[in-house]
Amino acid sequence: MNRPNTLILSAGLLLSPVLLTAAEWVRLTVDNAYVEIESDSVADAASHLQAVADRLAWWYAAAYLNLAFIAAWALALLAITVVVGRTRPVLAALSGLLGLISTLGLAMHWAFYYIPLGSLAQAADRARSGSGCLLLL
Length: 137
Fold this sequence. Notes:
By secondary structure, this protein is mainly alpha-helical. It has helices at 3-31, 41-54, 56-85, 89-121, 126-136. Helix content is 85%, strand content 0%.
């Protein structure tokens, strides 16, 4: 393995926790305005949508930071797979498979949480969006 590859994989190991922390901090900045209403699920979803709509730029910043985290996470798991693969190829294949499943799970969370909630927050009819959001959440 040459030096640039090692640096890229090492950067994934170092950047993934930083990017996850930044994404969660920005997401929580948006979600602090969210008031949970347990008695009415549609009103609860509408409240969450309103919180996202009020800080839509922050919501999309959290989404892109989370996407960057997913890429860094994939690099970090690839680095672990490469290191393990030098001595234990079967364990490397298993860890690579688990890393791929983990990365796909994170990507699904991104695709079905950040993107739909951001697009529903832009809708003009909040009650209808709240009902649609209820189906997603």
